[in-house]
Specification:
5-stranded mixed beta sheet, 2 domains, 4 helices, mainly beta, Cathepsin D, subunit A, domain 1
């Protein structure tokens, strides 16, 4: 009887180890490639809250490095189909956190070709950035994998973002993708991914950077899906703030949360130091997180392969074509 129980326990352990190894080895976006690989592949105007990118006119996706997976709605699949980009439905295991912060499991994925473009950026008389598509710059990104969307928003998750160099163009309020290392950027802020064995089962890596707030070090989760709060700390850290705090409210897909905001926290990040807003609030997501698209007031490039955020040595506030 004892031998039988031992055999059953060992069998369960072997099965669990097999499932764990399978999930760790499960990946996405392994077949992605653009028609044109050199230089800046495309531009994606950035706007809204949560931050959305325009793939092309009429096709807007949320951009969220806090989501392990990219997802697409039936509406956007139909839009792409009407343009001649028919999705291929495939069977593949997907497990990870979605853009709502929930754990998602699916056996269905879609392989989709995304038509992307370059844009001309100008400013109107009020100083607002206007983006005009350049039709001749079409650059199709092939075989992008998406899970069916659980909400009415399509999302480009970190599984898509880590395939490319992701450039944030502050003056143009746009995201650009490239495979090459673009010029005029300096390695400034190292990033790392979680080595937690539990995090290894999710579809994508979870990326962090180290920053000092009021001379205290923290590992901040890089989450471009955060609204409003460019830098987030738990309320337990309020005791280290040296300023008078203001009451605020942070809203996410998971709810609304009362927050305290320090308008002039002393922040050191990489080789840069200065005053920045820091929000203190608690929810069931990462305790320490930041949205680099909201935090940096200059051009920035996230290079996932080099595990580095790169900044320009100067801040150009002019609009570029």
């Amino acid at each position: 009887m004892i031998k039988k129980i031992t055999l059953i326990i060992l069998s369960i352990i072997v099965v669990l180890i097999g499932v764990y190894v399978f999930l760790v080895c499960t990946k996405s976006q392994t077949d992605v490639y653009p028609d044109r690989k050199e230089g800046r592949l495309c531009d994606m105007p950035l706007s809204g809250s949560p931050l959305m990118v325009e793939i092309m006119p009429g096709l807007r996706f949320r951009i969220d490095s806090g989501s392990d997976m990219s997802v697409i709605t039936e509406r956007d699949l139909a839009k792409l189909d009407s343009l001649g980009y028919k999705a291929e439905k495939i069977t593949a295991i997907t497990l990870g956190r979605n853009s709502n912060g929930d754990i998602s499991f699916s056996t269905t994925r879609y392989k989709v070709d995304l038509p992307t473009y370059r844009y001309n950026f100008t400013k109107d008389s009020l100083g607002n950035v206007c983006a005009e598509i350049i039709p001749s710059s079409l650059n199709v990104i092939h075989n992008v994998e998406f899970m069916p969307a659980p909400t009415d928003l399509s999302v480009l998750g970190v599984d898509f973002m880590e395939v490319f160099n992701v450039e944030y163009r502050h003056a143009d309020q746009a995201i650009s993708l490239s495979l090459d290392t673009l010029g005029n950027y300096e390695s400034s802020i190292p990033i790392k991914y979680s080595r937690n064995p539990i995090d290894a089962i999710w579809l994508s890596k979870r990326y962090y950077l180290e920053a000092m707030v009021h001379d205290r070090p923290y590992d901040f989760f890089i989450d471009t899906g955060i609204r409003k709060a460019n830098m987030k700390l738990p309320t337990s850290e309020i005791v280290y703030s040296r300023s008078e705090l203001e009451n605020d409210t942070i809203e996410s897909f998971r709810g609304k949360y009362p927050a305290k905001m320090d308008k002039a926290s002393w922040v050191a990040i990489g080789d840069r130091v200065g005053r920045r807003k820091v929000y203190y609030y608690d929810n069931d997501e990462e305790e320490c997180a930041m949205n680099p698209f909201l935090f940096f007031k200059q051009d920035m490039l996230i290079n996932y392969s080099d595990k580095m955020i790169k900044l320009r040595p100067f801040c150009d506030l002019g609009v570029r074509n």
